[in-house]
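Let us work through a complete example step by step.
Step 1: write down the sequence.
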Amino acid sequence: MPPKGKADTAGYQQLKKDLSAQAPGKLYILHGEETYLRDYCLNQLKELILSGGMGTFNFHEIPAKEMSPRRLEEALDCLPMMAQRTLVQVTDFDLFKAGEKDREAYAKLFEELPDYVCLVFVYDLIPYKGDARTKLAGAIKRSGVVVNFARQETGELVKWVRRRFRALGKDIDGNLASELIFLCGDLMTNLIGEIEKIGAYAKGTQITRADVDAVATPQLDTVVFRMTDAIGAGKFDQAAQVLGELFQMQEPPIKILWSLGRNMRQLYSARLALEKGRGAAYVADLWGLRSFQAEKIFTAARPGGSLLPALVPPGGGPVRRGGPGHEVHRPGRAAAAHQPAAGAVRSRPEARPAPAVRGFPC
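Step 2: predict the structure and record it as tokens.
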């Protein structure tokens, strides 16, 4: 799996500067999977521009089905009432799928935006796919800012989680905050609900692991990781119990199987990386994981970890790869010792019943 490239955050940093300076620009295109952060910045824009009693008159929202160059021009021509600026918002309209004449008209409007206008395109249900070869993309680059609200870096996310708990009158240490992110995912949109649940449940001011385990809803990959941990340790009853939790979460079996296979491939790649002397950073780049997620997988695949019996063949010998199948070489046992003598009749090995595992479906 190729490493994922880092998202372009230049537009996001520019928007933060504009909000801090209380000087919003003329044109913004807001998109990305971090919807919580996008909505927060959009509300900040509205508070700055639509302050005062006439905010309703200075806000113009254009539905995607009504969007056209003429409709946009009418909204841009509306002068602010008892305020400095107006805000025009267009949601889920794909600019680059418009006709050629419309794209040229939009490009011209973007080049001639009045100083009193702040035009915002919000991409919520549809992705933003700009085409740098078009005149429209050039006009957007010259007149506005494209803001990609990507997943935040681990360090920033941990700080944000701790700030949100402090706002609730609680405190959480950095390690437990990282565990919460691993358990519930790294999207702020999901984490904010989990933080509120944990904060309401916790009796003391210090958040504990018991508080997190009691009410936090884990994501699929985290639960599957617990199941592979149990399988590697030979705790099949515990693995079956985790599988039951997945069924209670009403996860489709094919999705569980996909996540299980992905998790095992990650563990196997971590094991191979260990043999080659590589670190957790290599696995993080390979799979596009965060550092703490890669560390957990690396720990499980490390000698002495819970997944060692599942990843290393019985006998502890190395695995030689390169032929059809894998040949296991076990130290101290010559290959010739297993060959029958010349002229001997091969006897069929006695069939042994497979050991029954209670509670784990085969």
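Step 3: interpret the result. The longest helix spans residues 253-275.
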